Amino acid sequence: MAARGVFITFEGGDGSGKSTQIQSVREWFESRGREVIVTREPGGTELGTEIRRLVQNGPEDVDARTEALLYAADRAYHVATVIAPALERGAVVLGDRYIDSSLAYQGAARSLGVDEIASLSAWATRGLYPSLTFLLDLPPEVGARRRTDAPDRMERESMDFHERVRHEYLRLADAEPDRIVVIDAVGTVDEVFSEIRGVLVERFEGGSVTIDEADDAMPAPAQEAPASSSSEVPEAAEAPEKPRQKNADKGSARKPATMVGALGESQGALWDE
Question: How many other CB atoms are found less than 10 A from the CB of residue 112?
Fold first, then answer.
């Protein structure tokens, strides 16, 4: 049987090394015969590239709500034209940032409300969530020291802003430990990838189970109303909410990471973005 699509995202603050690690993960999957699509937000499409320019290097007076809506517009188009079609044909999609970025940056650090941004993102993506997210955790001051280019509009925010981003990322990871795997990004490129590779082997090659055998064991997705076009992705099936830690902040409105089109869950460096 044909392999199902796999949707994996990479999150973290500036300088955490997401782009570098994505290339290593790409090679890992390609060596196992999988088609791999690497994309990013914003900027994974021609429209997204223009939105990226406007958000990162545009007017300084762009307010928080406008910023959030621009990211949501980019994400809706990105899912419809790049991510969903790739998953439908069985590719592995590696995304540099996705919904969690908006929850951390706009929902928490911009104080727009995590639940509100979660609802907006769910509507924009038709409920499409990754089955696995790597959170490359790094203190903001370390990320700032790794920067080699002139800082963009987001990078020029205060250290307190970036601390709020990091705090929200870690809260999200506490709330969804099965989906979000926290990786210590302070080490070298090889050390960080060694942690990531261990997770890949466990999730996709655990024991004698191959990627395609894991696909066969995945329950069939729930029946949905017919989509209006082949690139539309039905909303993910509702699942019981995971218990929160007692000291966690108010949980987001996101659905758990059971999604259509993704592989089911099994149980001296050059730095980039």
Answer: 19
SS3 164: helix
Across 79-232, the runs of DSSP E, i.e. the strands, are 92-96, 132-137, 180-184
As for how many domains the chain has, the answer is 1
pTM of the shown model: 0.74
According to the model, what pLDDT value does residue 67 have?
93
Phi, psi of 77, rounded to the nearest 5 degrees:
-70, -40
Residue 206 lies inside a defined structural domain of this protein: yes
Calpha distance 64→55 (Å, rounded): 10
How far is Cα 133 from Cα 166, in angstroms, rounded to an integer?
Answer: 15
Cβ distance 44 to 99 under 8 Å?
no
Q: How far apart are CA 214 and CA 92, in angstroms?
A: 14
How much is the pLDDT for 62?
Answer: 86
Residue 223 lies in a domain: no
Q: Residue 112 domain-assigned?
A: yes
Q: 51 near 42, Cβ under 8 Å?
A: yes
Q: Which domain holds residue 92?
A: 6-217
pLDDT digit string (tens) for 57-107?
777 788 999 999 999 999 999 999 999 999 999 999 999 999 999 999 999
> What are the strands, taking DSSP E only, across the chain?
6-12, 36-40, 92-96, 132-137, 180-184
Instruction: Say how far apart CA 8 and CA 94 lie, in whole Å.
Output: 5
* Cα 110 to Cα 56, 125, 200, 228, distances in angstroms: 15, 21, 33, 35
Q: Is residue 173 part of a domain?
A: yes
What CATH number is given to the structural domain containing 141? 3.40.50.300
Residues of the chain with pLDDT under 70: 1-2, 207-273
